[in-house]
Amino acid sequence: MASERKFIAENTRRVLLKEYLMKEVTRAGFGGLDVQRTPMGTRVTLITERPGIIIGRRGAAIKNLTRAIEDDFNFDNPQVEVQEVDNPNLNAQIMAEKLAFALERGWHFRRAGHSTIRRVMDNGARGCHIIIAGKLTGQRHRTEKFKEGYIKFCGEPKLQDVDKGYAVAKLKPGVIGVTVEIMRPNSKLPDEIDVTSPVEAAEKFPELASLMEKKDDFRPVELKSEAAPVEEPVEEPAAEPEAPAEAEEPVVEAENQEGEQ
User: Fold this and answer.
1) What is the pTM of this model?
2) CA 66, 22, 94, 128 torsion: positive or negative?
3) pLDDT, tens only, 75-111
4) Distance (Å, whole) CA 38 – CA 19
5) Beta-carbon neighbour count of residue 197 at 10 Å?
6) Tens-digit pLDDT profile for residues 2-23
7) Angle, alpha carbons 223-224-228 (nearest 5°)
8) Which residues is 30 bridged to in the sheet?
């Protein structure tokens, strides 16, 4: 139980750190956080849209951020690294924050949802799924979903290829939650396979060249076509023999017998 409590406490501390950084670097566009423990200390990689705002003039802002992480969250010798996101339109967390900010500025939720999903798909994403939940049009809570392209909801492709982000929009009627899921452009599904020719396979895998030379092992199987049924010759019924013609001799004999009488 001691080890389990240790894992829970460590994950709880990382979640609190993520929430703190999301509030502190909102202007810079928070795109993700990666915390790794090293022999030299704790490496905190911060992914943002505008890294210059986090670093500050002469590194003053990042020094204050490092000091706060060490004092408030008790991380040993934290080393904060700022990494710029390659394409902000394909980062789910950044797009969720932009969508929430658009709702706070007064955009209609349908207009904001369709505009966000169109921007994501135009940048090459395989699929996008947006969920907006809260008091959208009245005092009753409702949920609206926007989906385009191909998206996975479970299994290993969901964990490996789908990026998820969450943000909150604070409006007068209440709080609206925004969830954005983006399927990356380079994601490959298990059912997508490429068949390589024997020549290319021999170049990529030289150890298989000897096996490729054996014709018996790699001879394509010839499908035997079903032979057409052979028609058996129909035997014609033999013609009945003609009855032999009656001989005329008995008639002559009969006439002779009558003459003798």
Assistant:
1) 0.69
2) positive
3) 888 888 888 888 889 999 999 999 999 999 999 999 9
4) 23
5) 8
6) 788 888 888 888 888 888 888 8
7) 140
8) 48
